[in-house]
Design a protein that fits this description.
Length: 253
């Protein structure tokens, strides 16, 4: 969990930058610069990252203290282990609390995300796959054709979503010596980011139809964990109250 959350926070900090612009952190979680009035420093995410680092360090301390000791009543894994263990759990709990608060109020710029996904031919593999699936080209050949198309598009200043069948035909003619006989719709559909994602429907794929079952199971697991957590907290509180009652009885005797 420490590793996964630290990677999430790293990405969120990158997304929150002006250069990327995917994420807007709520005003209550940003800090202005002392000299640059235009800045919105996402300091809460930075605090999350620091807390996760402390949790990681404390967890590694527990592991290191435990790894080379025999089984038995050993001081190494006694009282000296408590402080780093508590630090690990406390910092992790606080990091999760902060991150949850940020994400609840955060807004994601889907338009910018789509625009970025449309740049620099991130979906070129989709075009190569389409050449294999629809025109039965060997993938190696489809790969070379697509690579040549990308080179030509960059050289001619053509954006991915502006690529037409004519450019693909020129690339294919250079590589294979033959035309493909495709139209603009074929090329644009293969390079469209949404179509690229929607086509990946296998378990673990990014398509909505593939992701929704995973999200549903995750929500169900979260509800079960929350129910268990509340029940255990209640049980521990009752046990603590009972213990205090027994102590009072003994002291009053």
């Amino acid at each position: 969990m420490r590793y996964d959350l630290s990677r999430v926070v790293f990405d969120l900090l990158n997304w929150a930058s002006r250069e990327v612009g995917f994420l807007r952190v709520p005003d209550e979680f940003v800090q202005i610069s002392s000299i640059m009035p235009q800045k919105r420093n996402p300091v809460v995410l930075e605090h999350c990252r620091a807390k996760l680092a402390r949790a990681h360090g404390s967890g590694e301390t527990v592991y290191t203290m435990s790894r080379n000791v025999p089984f038995g009543d050993i001081n190494d894994v006694g009282e000296q282990l408590i402080e780093p263990a508590l630090t690990c759990f406390t910092e992790l709990d606080e990091a999760v609390t902060l991150l949850s608060a940020v994400l609840e109020g955060a807004t994601f710029n889907l338009e910018v995300m789509h625009h970025k996904a449309s740049e620099h031919f991130t979906t070129a593999t989709g075009l190569a796959d389409a050449l294999v699936a629809n025109l039965h080209l060997p993938f190696r050949q489809a790969h070379h054709v697509t690579s040549r198309l990308v080179d030509m598009a960059y050289a001619e200043g053509i954006a991915p979503l502006d690529v037409k069948a004519e450019l693909l035909e020129r690339a294919a003619l250079e590589v294979t010596g033959a035309l493909l006989g495709v139209d603009d719709a074929f090329v644009q559909s293969a390079l469209d980011p949404r179509a690229f994602v929607d086509a990946r429907t296998i378990p673990g794929g990014p398509a909505k139809t593939a992701m929704m079952p995973f999200l549903a199971r995750a929500r169900e697991t979260m509800l079960e964990d929350n129910t268990w957590h509340r029940a255990e907290n209640s049980r521990l509180r009752r046990a603590a109250d009972a213990l205090e009652g027994e102590i009072d009885t003994v002291l009053a005797a």
